[in-house]
């Protein structure tokens, strides 16, 4: 039960962060709407976030955690701490140079990130200015990823999982101060808030490492054998670990050619879709990687097989019902969360359409997070690159084609299809190598989870049609109705899962009663 417990710990804190994130996005929608300033800020926010997820949390984390965990398992804390310090020194030097270069070259980078903005000089200039303000966030987040990887290797997940709450708290405070008139330029205020939040999160994680007795010292940057091995693993992983993020940036590039607001529609839809992805997919990936690394490091292949199967089973148990809900009732969700102030009904409808398309790929996004640790734990970051490159090429081709017919919704649908292609390739390769061997429990429970989720989706669809008028009343009425749908849907799925054998409720109660790891 160690893996489900770790996922529950990570997922619980992540859920708290996502709830704060929704509060943040509700305020952003109210203050900025879905116009020029919103489009500019979302590009400015996505650019450093893309590099953070691709490099810091993606390729770097996938390469660093197995190397650190194996040193920890075999040699103890001191060799692991020395390796982490050497890696941090090189990382900080490289990121400082990259950040400065990117900020200087930002006007030219905009031609690659948002080429559709070129026809609107004011929009392009604002986006460039805001991105320069947000970009230092990357450096803080990369260092935080290294320190967080050290904590996760010790199964101290709480601090890393809770840190994103600080980002949302800072941005919520910024938006509140903007609404009361303290800041006159909301886009600029938010951009400054992003940079400040990065620094605050880094300090919090550094303090957690200090309390755990694993804080590092920075030596002179040099390419030691351990760092060289780290860089070798990082190079191919820059694409392999971040295929979903690459696809989402491609979405922004293509959406910049569409009508104004398209970037914002995709952003808000992705934010809702990211809730189960962050709570389940990221949590499973973060918990599974150090666990597999330790098991494989000591030759426990049977334990690694069991951990992989339980990760798939547990992640799908939590993801598939959420997928059903997002597909069958996207408009009520978007209406309750965002439709107010500058975010009108037409924006809500456009965002809901994109959410339904993104949700079609939600199980695939989570499975990518669940399957790729099987490669990374074996220090294989090259294979996911080949798979990711193929999926990314399909995404681009499909997006260009589908956006001609369904505008921004076609872009979201292409992203979902490419994610499923990625999963299929990952499964085939792992199966052929003997690294994926489903056991009897997975064969029984996975189809049962699909069945229970399908019944849930049908029930929610019928209920949403019957009570559609409840989502057109006052905000309190809409909120209460949506809360009842969520609560009722959760109870219904729990009953269905127990009846058809998708889960044992007693096992889940045992998982969630255990105290979280600090």
Protein architecture, described:
It contains 20 helices and no strands. With 518 residues, the protein is an all-alpha fold. The protein has one domain. The longest helix has 52 residues. It is globular. The C terminus is likely disordered.
How many structural domains are formed by the residues?
1
* Amount of beta strand: under 5%
Count of helical segments? 20
Strand count: 0
The rough form would be described as globular
Structural class: mainly alpha
Overall mean pLDDT stands at 82
Brief summary of the model shown:
This protein has 518 residues and is mostly helical. It contains 20 helices and no strands.
Describe the SSE topology.
Layout: H1 2-32, H2 36-75, H3 77-104, H4 106-113, H5 121-134, H6 137-153, H7 158-162, H8 164-179, H9 186-212, H10 225-240, H11 243-255, H12 262-297, H13 301-328, H14 330-338, H15 345-359, H16 362-376, H17 382-433, H18 440-466, H19 475-500, H20 505-513
């Amino acid at each position: 039960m160690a893996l489900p417990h770790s996922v529950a710990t990570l997922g619980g804190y992540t859920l708290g962060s996502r709830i704060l994130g929704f509060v943040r996005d509700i305020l952003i929608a109210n203050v900025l709407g879905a116009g020029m300033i919103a489009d500019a800020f979302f590009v400015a926010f996505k650019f450093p976030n893309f590099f953070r997820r691709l490099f810091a949390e993606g390729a770097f984390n996938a390469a660093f955690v197995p190397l650190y965990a194996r040193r920890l398992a075999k040699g103890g804390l001191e060799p692991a701490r020395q390796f982490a310090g050497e890696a941090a020194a090189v990382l900080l030097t490289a990121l400082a140079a990259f950040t400065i270069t990117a900020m200087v070259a930002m006007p030219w980078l905009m031609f690659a990130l948002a080429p559709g903005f070129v026809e609107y000089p004011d929009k392009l200039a604002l986006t460039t200015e805001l991105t320069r303000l947000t970009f230092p966030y990357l450096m803080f987040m990369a260092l935080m990823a290294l320190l967080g990887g050290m904590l996760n290797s010790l199964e101290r997940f709480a601090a890393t999982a809770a840190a994103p709450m600080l980002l949302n708290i800072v941005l919520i405070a910024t938006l509140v101060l903007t609404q009361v008139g303290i800041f006159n330029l909301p886009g600029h205020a938010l951009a400054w808030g992003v940079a400040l939040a990065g620094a605050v999160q880094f300090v919090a994680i550094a303090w957690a490492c200090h309390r755990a007795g694993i804080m590092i010292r920075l030596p002179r940057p040099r390419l030691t054998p351990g760092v060289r091995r780290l860089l070798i693993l990082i190079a191919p992983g820059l694409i392999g670990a971040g295929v979903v993020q690459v696809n989402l940036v491609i979405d922004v590039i293509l959406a910049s050619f569409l009508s104004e607001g398209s970037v914002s529609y995709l952003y808000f839809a992705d934010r809702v879709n990211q809730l189960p992805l962050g709570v389940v997919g990221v949590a499973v990936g973060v918990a599974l990687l150090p666990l597999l690394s330790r098991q494989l490091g000591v030759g426990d292949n049977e334990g690694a097989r069991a951990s992989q199967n339980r990760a798939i089973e547990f992640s799908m148990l939590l993801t598939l019902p959420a997928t059903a809900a997002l597909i069958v009732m996207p408009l009520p969700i978007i209406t309750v969360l965002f439709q107010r102030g500058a975010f009108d009904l037409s924006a809500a409808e456009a965002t809901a359409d994109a959410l339904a398309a993104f949700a079609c790929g939600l199980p695939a996004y989570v499975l990518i997070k669940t399957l790729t640790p099987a490669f990374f734990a074996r220090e294989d970051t090259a294979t996911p690159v080949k798979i990711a490159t193929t999926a990314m090429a399909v995404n681009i081709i499909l997006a260009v084609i589908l956006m001609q017919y369904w505008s921004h919704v076609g872009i979201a649908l292409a992203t979902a299809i490419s994610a499923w292609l990625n999963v299929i390739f990952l499964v085939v390769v792992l199966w052929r190598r003997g690294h994926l061997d489903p056991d009897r429990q997975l064969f029984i429970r996975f189809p049962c989870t699909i069945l229970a989720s399908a019944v849930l989706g049908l029930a929610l669809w019928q209920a949403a049609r019957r009570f559609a008028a409840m989502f057109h009343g006052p905000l309190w009425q809409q909120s209460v109705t949506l809360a009842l749908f969520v609560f009722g849907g959760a109870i219904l799925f729990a009953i269905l899962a127990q009846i058809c054998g998708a889960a044992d409720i007693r096992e889940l109660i045992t998982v969630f009663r255990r105290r979280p790891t600090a």
